[in-house]
Amino acid sequence: MSYSTSQPAPESDPSPIAPTSESNTPEPEKTDVLVQYVVLRRDLIDSWPLGSVVTQGCHASVSAIWANKDDPHTIDYCSPEKIDSMHKVTLEVKSEQQILNLSEKLKASSIVHRLWIEQPENIPTCLLQNLTPNPQYLHILRS
User: Which stretches does the entry tag as region Disordered (predicted)?
Assistant: First the structure.
């Protein structure tokens, strides 16, 4: 499995999003960098336009963030102070069977993740895990 990382270029303007003053959500640990791991199917790049494959990762990322919007790590990851310095690592698997196998391994290890299924074709295209600092399951993602 290969991977790449990306971050946006820093902007000179501060984010227009204002922080909320009160929250009932516990604060996540501030010592670790939160990383969102995105796993895409490599075989789709050979048969789909590149933009369509990138779009699958975008759909899955937004879906995973929204599904976990109340999680302290997600709130921290999307905070006004960090919105312009998100960390993502993009990994690839070779085929549909590999992404399904990865999803099953994560389920068996009780690891919260989201398998994006493109509709109406019902094609599994991308997988994302819930945000956590220093994930102890990287060996599963990289295997």
Answer: 1-30
Residue 90: strand, helix, or coil: strand
- With 0-12 / 13-18 / 19 or more C-beta atoms within 10 angstroms meaning exposed / middle / buried, residue 69 is exposed
Residue 132's pLDDT is what?
Answer: 75
Rounded Cα gap, residues 64 and 88, in angstroms: 13
Q: Which of 89, 111, 73 is nearest to 40 (CA)?
A: 89
**pTM of the predicted model, to two decimals?**
0.73
Q: Which CATH architecture has domain 32-142?
A: 3-Layer(aba) Sandwich (3.40)
Are 134 and 77 within 8 A, CB to CB?
no
Tokens of 36: 């969102």
